[in-house]
Design a protein that fits this description.
The chain has 123 residues and is an alpha+beta fold. The protein has one domain: Aspartate Aminotransferase, domain 1 (Alpha-Beta Complex), CATH 3.90.1150. The protein is built from four helices and six strands. Strands 1-2-3-4-6-5 form a six-stranded antiparallel beta sheet.
Length: 123
C-alpha cells in the first residue's frame, strides 16, 4: 500500500507549481473533498491529483492554462446534476471552472457523495 504522506506530498508539489489563483481554487476544492471523504487516499494518477476510496478512483482535479477542472469520472453523476452544473463548461465526466468562480462547496459535497454512492453500488 502506498504511503499516504508521500502521496499527499505529491499533490502538494503539484499545487505548488500552479499560479496563485489556480492553486487557491484547487486547494479549496481539495479541502472540501477531504471533508466529505476523510478516509480517501490521494495521489497523482495520469498526471493529476486523484482521490481513491477503497482502492478505487473517486474524483480528481487539475488545471491547465485558462481554467481549473474537477473530474467526477462519471457521466451518470454529471447527468443527474445537469441543472446544478448549467453554469459550468462541461465535458464527459469533467467540470471546468475559472479560479475566480469556483464550484460552491455545497455542490462539491453533493457531487462527491453521489460518486461515493455510485462506487458503493458498483463494486
Amino acid at each position: 500500500m502506498a504511503d499516504p504522506n508521500v502521496s499527499a506530498a505529491e499533490v502538494d508539489a503539484f499545487l505548488a507549481e500552479l499560479p496563485d489563483a489556480q492553486r487557491a481554487a484547487l486547494a479549496s476544492l481539495r479541502a472540501t473533498i477531504r471533508s466529505v471523504v476523510p478516509t480517501a487516499t490521494e495521489g497523482i494518477s495520469y498526471g493529476i491529483p486523484t482521490f481513491r476510496l477503497d482502492g478505487r478512483p473517486l474524483v480528481a482535479f487539475g488545471a491547465v492554462k485558462g481554467h481549473c477542472a474537477f473530474y467526477l469520472m462519471s457521466t451518470a453523476v454529471m447527468d443527474a446534476h445537469r441543472d446544478e452544473l448549467a453554469a459550468y463548461d462541461l465535458g464527459k465526466g469533467t467540470i471546468r471552472f475559472q479560479p475566480d468562480a469556483p464550484i460552491p462547496a455545497a455542490l462539491v459535497r453533493t457531487l462527491v457523495e453521489a460518486r461515493i454512492g455510485e462506487n458503493d453500488r458498483n463494486p
